[in-house]
Design a protein that fits this description.
- With 136 residues, the chain is an alpha+beta fold.
- Helices cover 19% and strands 29% of the residues.
- The strands form two sheets. The chain has a four-stranded antiparallel β-sheet. A three-stranded antiparallel β-sheet has the order 1-2-3.
- Strand 2 and strand 3 form a beta hairpin.
- The longest helix is centred in the C-terminal third of the chain and has 13 residues.
- The radius of gyration is 15 Å and the shape is globular.
- The relative contact order is 0.21.
Length: 136
């Protein structure tokens, strides 16, 4: 059985530009690993206009930053995952989590395996839906 991914863009707010959130099997992935006040990556960084998204999976494994705590990733580290396409599967594995405030250590999300067709379709949908982009 495959996991199911959904990519959501949160609207820009007073403090941050539009950011991404990732829902896997109906559960939000970032919030549990970066704690209250943390955020996902900026949508413009991960879904750049006119270029393929960094979320696209290839046979070459690469590490992506998917979130950071309120104090910033430069302080406590980033939530990151290794993304790789293995045949008809896209795998998210080898999570790294930010340092946790004592006494609650962070636990990384589990390894996820997505059907490559569903994953590619969701990334393509997120790339094409640019409602959050503000033209100045």
């Amino acid at each position: 059985m495959f996991d199911h991914v959904e990519i959501r863009v949160l609207p820009p707010g007073h403090r941050f530009a539009a950011q991404l959130r990732f829902w896997v099997n109906g559960e939000e992935v970032i919030e549990g690993a970066v704690y209250e006040g943390g955020r996902g990556p900026f949508a413009a960084d991960v879904l750049p206009a006119g270029r393929p998204s960094l979320l696209r999976a290839t046979s070459e494994a690469r590490r992506l930053e998917l979130g950071e705590p309120e104090c910033t990733g430069g302080c406590c580290g980033f939530l990151s995952v290794v993304v790789q396409r293995i045949g008809d599967i896209v795998q998210w594995s080898d999570w790294e989590v930010p340092a946790a405030p004592a006494p609650a250590p962070a636990s990384p999300p589990p390894e996820f395996r997505f059907d490559a067709g569903q994953y590619d379709a969701e990334v393509a949908r997120a790339e094409s839906d640019r409602w959050w982009q503000v033209n100045m």
